[in-house]
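Please, structure for the following, as tokens.
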Amino acid sequence: METERIIAELTFKAVRSSGPGGQNVNKVSSKVVLTFDLNNSQALDEVEKALIETKLASKLTIENLLILNCDEDRSQLKNKAIITKRFVELIEKSLIVPKKRKVTKVPKSVVEKRLKDKSVVSEIKENRKKPKL
């Protein structure tokens, strides 16, 4: 994955933000909306696209667009940096392929120890009973 090429494909849009802002709240567009078109991306190969599509299925639109917003800060520049960082982390996390689990047998020593412990407990319980006369 080439991070610089993917970031170059992003489109940013500044929108009026809800929340705190004082007198500038209705004049300044500080909220940043990031859009990434997965289908038309040149930076990702088909395998990576399929992996992202399956892992981020709940976050993608019908046209395979990934849309993220950020209005945490009153500065548009800071919001853009925050949302870009969040996007890169999301893509990197979705490209991780989990390792296959190898099925292993229970070791003989563990089985023997369990059986030995069982017999010890059984013997202790047997000794608690009243003796037969």
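The mean pLDDT is 89. The radius of gyration is 29 Å.
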